[in-house]
Design a protein that fits this description.
heterodimer, A: alpha+beta, Rossmann fold, D-amino Acid Aminotransferase, Chain A, domain 1, Dna Ligase, domain 1, 4 domains, 31% helix, B: 140 residues, alpha+beta, three-stranded antiparallel sheet, two-stranded antiparallel sheet, 8 strands, 35% strand
């Protein structure tokens, strides 16, 4: 039997759906992970055939585990990861040990936001940015930036809105810089212009230089202490061509990175200065994205990614066209979660397809400072974008979090 | 003779409960004057055949029944005690039976004087249950 080796996974969401898809396609699934839960609660993860627990921050240990797998006679079709930290290594292993040839170079660039900005320097779609290489030269940089506020400061490895801070003035900026510096004193800090306008996530699959748009998802951003995306909307009538200038910008970004074989998702914002690239990541978006796309168009993007990595042509032919909206649930107060009510009632509301709750009883929940601090979601479908949103929000309205103050 | 011994025991037990309750709220302490939020050891009394139940009115004027009490005073000589009624409520603050998802025991001003010779056992409950703050419900 042919095997696929997964480098890390989450318990749910797009990354685990990749494992499910591989299993469905008839592959033996082998997971390399440092999370013992996949062994301890084995019966909950039946799509994983073989779990190997190891220190994933040690590349030598990963390579040694792979050597063992090969020596056991397993025929590995590809290595794949849906987690940022292992994407490059997985693609490198696929190119070195399997028959598929994935585009490798941009993957390394994309995992570092400073490298990405520098690589794209001078492009119209690249926002204004500055790099703060050390806290010692912060005062000089602040002097240069004093007329540019508001600004965004972020850590180059940030993902899921973690460590992305909006600052309105020099004082806030210095406070944010110190905050990021305390977390990682060696890391540089990226300072970017703050952009306003509607934001879209675009899922891209490139197969033998042919660029395919798997989905365009409009994002609803909630601005609290951090920028948190609380709504994702797939509208069947929305095509790249309908957003003037977006198609050209997306194609030129993919072209600039010279992606020939691979997947990525871009976050683009339509500003008064045109389309700007907020972020690009060399993988499909996590969380509910795979389910949303499948419900909207009938194809499973995680599965198509597996096909691409195994050297097969991805099939993105739409089987149907539905409007989908996902509303993420967040809380506004810190507290210990005692109870969640209304999930069953939410599931019964018109149009609601799925209600997912991530938070566990007894867990401390807080107002979101990263996407990981969203505690559940409601997916709904309908025949129009507005109706799907209405259904999802109506479902979410049934759900209540009971928090014990701390 | 046996009966008398038991009566003395219940009386003595409640006397000790009252002492511990005072300690819990740091009453009469010389060096601690903070309010740590606990001043009640709730308890259930039983005759051996059934639990003692009483009814009263809560702070909103609604009728309720309960079998959980707070000890207010004890007269060892007469072997009787003054107790106040604690109202069991659920996580939303609605009155419930004790065995049905009690989240908090609300103190009330309903008092009773009871003859302790009628009872054979005391079941203490956690002081944390008394006037436990109801959770914040999100979204409101």
């Amino acid at each position: 039997m042919n095997s696929i080796v997964f480098l890390g996974t989450n318990k749910t969401g797009s990354s685990y759906e990749g494992i499910k898809a591989a299993k469905r396609l008839g592959y033996e699934t082998i997971l390399l992970t440092n999370r013992t839960i996949f062994v301890e609660e084995r019966e909950d993860y039946q799509e994983i055939d073989d779990v190997r627990i190891l220190n994933m921050s040690d590349t030598d240990e990963i390579l040694s585990a792979i050597t063992d797998i090969i020596e056991e006679g397993k025929k590995i079709v590809c290595f794949i990861s849906f987690l940022d930290e292992y994407i490059y290594l997985a693609a490198l292993l696929t190119n070195s040990l399997c028959h598929t040839l994935l585009t490798l170079e941009p993957l390394e660039l994309m995992t570092d936001k400073i490298l990405t900005r520098r690589y794209l320097a001078g492009k119209d779609y690249n926002p204004f940015y500055q790099v703060l290489s050390s806290i010692e030269n912060a005062d000089n940089v602040m002097e240069e930036l004093k007329d540019q506020f508001p600004l965004i400061i972020k850590s180059p490895q940030s993902n899921g809105s973690k460590d992305v801070i909006l600052v309105e003035n020099v004082w806030e900026c210095m406070k944010g810089v110190k905050q990021l510096h305390r977390k990682n004193s060696k890391s540089k800090i990226l300072v970017e212009e703050y952009l306003e306008g509607p934001q879209y996530l675009i899922e891209i699959v490139v197969y033998q230089s042919t660029i395919m748009v798997a989905a365009i998802v409009e994002q609803e951003v909630t601005k609290g202490e951090r920028f948190i995306i609380t709504g994702y909307s797939i509208c069947p009538e929305l095509h790249l061509e309908q957003l003037p200038g977006l198609k050209e910008t997306v194609l030129s970004i993919i072209e600039d990175f010279q992606i020939r074989n691979g997947t990525c998702h871009l976050e683009m914002k339509l500003t008064n200065k045109g389309w700007k690239l907020i972020e690009i990541n060399p993988r499909m978006a996590g969380g509910a994205m795979n389910r949303m796309i499948e419900e909207a168009f009938g194809y499973n993007l995680a599965e198509q990614t597996i096909r691409l990595f195994s050297g097969l042509e991805p099939d993105l032919r739409k089987k149907h066209n539905k409007a989908i909206y996902t509303h993420y649930l967040i809380v506004g107060t810190v507290g210990k979660l005692l109870k969640v009510s209304g999930c069953d009632s939410a599931k019964e509301q018109t149009g609601v397809l799925e209600v997912s709750m991530k938070a566990e009883y007894g867990q401390l929940v807080i107002p979101p400072r990263s996407m990981g601090q969203r505690y559940g979601y409601v997916i709904a479908s309908a025949d129009s974008k507005d109706r799907a949103r209405e259904c999802a929000l109506n479902g979410a309205k049934q759900i209540q979090f009971y928090l014990q103050p701390v | 003779m046996g009966e008398e011994h038991k009566v003395v025991c219940i009386c003595k037990d409640l006397q000790q409960l009252l002492e511990e309750q005072k300690n819990l709220s740091f009453e009469d302490f010389r060096f601690i004057c903070d309010d740590f939020g606990y001043d009640t050891i709730p308890f259930i009394l039983s005759t051996g055949k059934c639990q003692f139940e009483a009814f009263g009115w809560n702070n909103n004027g609604n009728f309720f029944t309960t079998n959980v009490f707070r000890l207010e005073a004890i007269d060892v000589r007469k072997c009787c005690a003054t107790v106040s009624l604690l109202e069991p409520v659920d996580i939303d603050g609605y009155p419930v039976d004790l065995c049905d998802h009690v989240f908090s025991l609300r103190t009330t001003s309903n008092c009773l004087v009871i003859d302790l010779t009628c009872f054979k056992s005391i079941q203490p409950l956690s002081p944390r249950l008394v006037n436990r703050l109801l959770p914040i419900v999100e979204p409101k």
